[in-house]
Write a structure and sequence with these properties.
CATH class: Alpha Beta
Number of helices: 2
Number of domains: 1
Strand content: 25-35%
Order of helices and strands: EHEHEEEEEEEEE
CATH architecture: 4-Layer Sandwich
Distance between the termini: 22 Å
CATH topology: Purple Acid Phosphatase, chain A, domain 2
Shape: globular
Helix content: under 10%
CATH superfamily: Metallo-dependent phosphatases
Strand order of the largest sheet: 4-3-2-1-10-11
Largest sheet: 6 strands, mixed
Amino acid sequence: MRIGLLADTHIPDIEQAVPDRVMDAFRDVDLILHAGDIYSRSVLDYLQRVAPVLAAKGDDDYILDERVKDRHVLMLEGKTVWLVHERPYSYRSGTPKNGHLKGSDPSEAADIIVFGHEHRTIVERQDGVLLVYPGSPTFLAYRRGPGTVALLDIEQGEARVRILEL
């Protein structure tokens, strides 16, 4: 399974629309995950032309849409994938807690956490959990212009991430 990942599009604040290069990068994906700070439902509608879309609610999002939640917990090809806007606190402090959030169901422990908010690319493992910030296609490092997206491939129980510069 191939999943397109992006975050922090900030449309129409930073750009007027999703850059065409994003659609080119995602042309063969089965699913698109947007890690928040979307600003406009039109972003999700546009991405949905390529594949089904789910999104995390960003700290600046006020979108009412069934595709947008504070946290999605997905079982994809045998891996539990979380889609959130901000990296869970335990993975910021350097003291991971096996992919659990306070009050979360232990059966939902994350194998992969896709998040946004940080405006820099991150692909790292902590306590056996793959953490992925795909970057922003429009506002990477808080600079306007071409940024990054990512492709997450999950096959035979293995997950691989590629960051793509636009």
